[in-house]
Amino acid sequence: MDLDTECIPLGHIQTYLNMSKSIPDNVDRLIKRVGIRLADADEKMQAVLNMDQYEMYRRAGIQVSEDGVAGYFVTPRQVLKLIDQAMDLLGMPYLGLPMGNLMTVTHHGMAGLAVVTQPTMLDSGRVLERFFRELFPPLELSVHIDGQRGWLQIDENLSLAPYTHFFIELNLVSFYNIFADLVGHDPRMMPDRLELNYPDPGWGHIYRRYFKCPVIFDAGRNALSGPSFLADVDMPLANRLMAMTAEKTLFENIPTRAIRMVPLRLRRLLVRYYGAFPSLENAARELGMSGRTLRRRLADDGTSYQQELNFVREKFAREYFQRGGTSITELAHLLGYADSSAFAKAFRGWTGISPSDFMQQQGSRPS
Q1: Which fold has domain 261-362?
Q2: Residue 42's pLDDT is what?
């Protein structure tokens, strides 16, 4: 997958661009909903209401008729062009935050309904993981539970610069607000920490209006975290039949391609085998093809088994250190390296610094 791979259902992107669905009927209510004071609020409101999605599509090189977008796929590069137009139109580099704040479960459509009708918060997180993989493969969402802490993390499978922050802002503030609504805004039940994998973009003070918890920039990951017991909280709208029906309706109306993308399928397979990575031949067998076919299909997508393995190794290494791990020898063994020096060489190639220096940045001492 690269910036020109047609892998994102346009029907899903349309959900986000149809901002007029979320706009209140007057400026005062808009400012209240957005939660921040907007310069030229009247003009911004009219700009959103007059936004022509199909003209934006045309400017982004998306040729689609107004008869519908079902079955139409766009590239990550085209999505970035759409975001660029919205940023320019509204003059709001922090657009992801107010957009996410305006979005409700209803705005997410069948995807939102399928998530909030799961039995528990953890079940909802697992469904979110799957939806991200299918509906927006440039990003990977994952749910983690480790002892007394749990967190929802978003990683890039593909760089979305210069608008990485937009996608992180929009999704995390939307999830945070929906979570708050589900638990009745009870502070004991809320995530209590937001970590971001980039420096303060210049509007960190706006983040702190939206998230009622500490916000840490340059944290090494994009994660919303809280006590692990939140995973077992019963969803107040739990309804298995409704959840199944909503998911079925979602994918009937928005076909996806990500499940057929071999590099992503291989990456997920490698993640499952963390600590005992399979050989290329064994991985190919699990994916239902020969080793030769796997090599060819990866090459067609501009990658290789080794590149995908290194992507997963780097991801696990960063997470190990960010979670307080300090044994370079232990990590090298878990990632399948012959010794710690081989791992250290690889880590320096990924990050530009040694594992010891990386740990010092995280506030840990190597052992």
Answers
A1: Arc Repressor Mutant, subunit A (1.10.10)
A2: 60
